[in-house]
Write a structure and sequence with these properties.
Elements lengths: L18 H4 L1 H15 L4 H14 L3 H13 L4 H6 L12 H14 L1 H4 L3 H10 L2 H24 L9
Helix pairs in contact: 2-9, 3-4, 3-6, 3-9, 6-8, 6-9
């Protein structure tokens, strides 16, 4: 029998620590930053950004949470399935969503290529300065949440909100 390379036959590993309890001030600051980042942005766009960054970071906990949040907000299954391959399925997404997804990819994978001028220019052409700053802040927050969830081994499907 062939198994997926990331699959092993043992039970899932236990979470390492409860970040919110172990670093409550940092946790509250991150909650506040997240709330400030999403302020005034279209909720559908917020979820698409969070889903794409979570794909790239392979964060099952956040991916599960944000796809569920998107469904509750009325997002279609078709669009949720196409986020990971949005470049091949552009017709599912608006120009602004495509620009935000490209910026999400560039910022999430920043160590590889930086944020290319054309990616930034496309986003800057479609978002006003305040919106663009909010999108950048949101991409920063989801990448931070992904790193917290991955480093503490948050388990997908155990969202306690």
């Amino acid at each position: 029998m062939t198994t997926h390379p990331s699959t092993n036959s043992t039970q899932a590993k236990a979470p390492r620590l409860e970040f919110a309890k172990s670093a409550p001030k940092a946790f509250r600051a991150l909650i506040a930053f997240d709330a400030a980042a999403r302020e005034g942005l279209d909720p559908a766009l917020v979820e698409l950004i969070q889903i794409r960054a979570s794909h790239l970071n392979q964060c099952a906990y956040c991916l599960h949470m944000h796809t569920n949040d998107a469904r509750k907000a009325g997002e279609s299954e078709d669009r949720l399935h196409m986020v990971a391959v949005w470049r091949e399925a552009r017709h599912f997404f608006t120009e602004r969503e495509q620009a935000a997804l490209a910026l999400t990819e560039a910022m999430t994978l920043v160590a590889g290529t930086g944020v290319p001028d054309e990616v930034y220019a496309q986003a800057a052409a479609l978002f006003d300065e305040r919106e663009l700053a909010q999108v950048i802040a949101l991409i920063c927050t989801i990448n931070t949440w992904n790193r917290v969830a991955l480093s503490t081994r948050k388990v997908a499907g155990t969202d306690e909100r």
